[in-house]
Amino acid sequence: MPHENIKHIVLVLSGKGGVGKSSITTQLALSLSLRGHTIGVLDIDLTGPSIPRFFGIEEAKVRQAPGGWIPVSVHDEQVLSPLPLPLSSQKPAGEAKNEEQRIGALSCMSLGFILANRNDAVIWRGPKKTAMVKQFLTDVLWPPLDYLLIDTPPGTSDEHISLLENLHLQTSSPSAPRNQLAGAVVVTTPQAISISDVKKELNFCKKTGIRVLGVVENMAGFVCPNCKECTNVFSKGGGEVMAREFEVPFLGSVPIDPQFVELVEEGTRPVYPEGTIIAGKDVGGEVGVEDEKRKEGLLVDKYRSCSLWPLFDGIVGGLDEDIRSRDV
Predict the structure, then answer these.
(1) Which of 39, 154, 277, 326 is the most buried (most CB within 10 A)?
(2) Which residues does the annotation say bind ATP (predicted)?
């Protein structure tokens, strides 16, 4: 990759499968884009590439260009119209504030764009995986990016070793931006079995010299689509305890929201019962969205109506401030 074009690289890691790394990567990317940053997402989960599905671009294919591959565009830089205000936030004319929002461009690269059939099984030995990861890191022609997020497979396998070897080599170049390999976001769920596996990932980061930007505890609750309650069905707090034990930042707890799943699977804008409070923000009772129009618009636009956006906006705000403070 022309790494001089990329200001910061962030890995999304976990020692456990099924904790929602790709979901977290997707929402980090959307939230950073909504803050005006130009974002790239590289999916190196070779046997289960799910990033194309999360962004609704499964049918897309990468294009060859002199020197490498052109990543698939999710959306270009543009200005989004204001969102309708929730019913509970309606104010007299002139008092309500809901402004236009400038977003940064977002593009992706994944093995899913290269396979002839998205259902094809990837049955590769370690050396071929290693070669593919290296090719992703050298042959993708990213545009200038503020952040490149790398979605990884679970564990500490061949892909991880190849990834870090190549990243350390590239980011140590004199031409590479300062603090280019910013660090890793580590994902867990609250259950003890998940935390046990993720502790190994934190040790892996320590041994390989990767700075841990923080821990995200995923699936730490359930946002009911029919009432305004958020219930901790899988308990909560294990990720925060683990972060304190390893003396790394705790970025936050993220509940399961079926409407985010519906947004990804069907492209439907989330709408919540009036009075739904997530992260201290009332996301319920949005007006002006008729059922037949809930599928209109960009994914990033519809994500602004999701209950999880305020959570991730806070997470990426803290990450961005922390990372950029180390540039000087």
Answers:
(1) 39
(2) 15-22
- The per-residue pLDDT for range 180-238, each reduced to its tens digit, is 999 999 999 988 888 988 999 999 999 999 999 999 999 988 887 777 677 776 667 78
The answer to whether 17 is a known ligand-binding residue is yes
Element (H, E) at 111: none
Q: Is 238 annotated as a binding residue?
A: no
| Distance in angstroms (rounded) separating the CA atoms of residues 39 and 150 | 11
pLDDT digits (tens, 9 = 90+) for 90-133: 444 444 456 889 999 999 999 999 987 777 778 888 889 999 99
- Is 295 assigned a ligand-binding role in the annotation? no
The pTM score is 0.92
Q: Which CATH architecture has domain 3-89+101-325?
A: 3-Layer(aba) Sandwich (3.40)
The answer on whether 16 is annotated among ligand-binding residues is: yes
For the chain, which residues make up each domain, given as ranges?
Answer: 3-89+101-325
SS3 at position 12:
strand
19 is in an annotated binding site: yes
Consult the annotation and say whether 21 binds a ligand.
yes
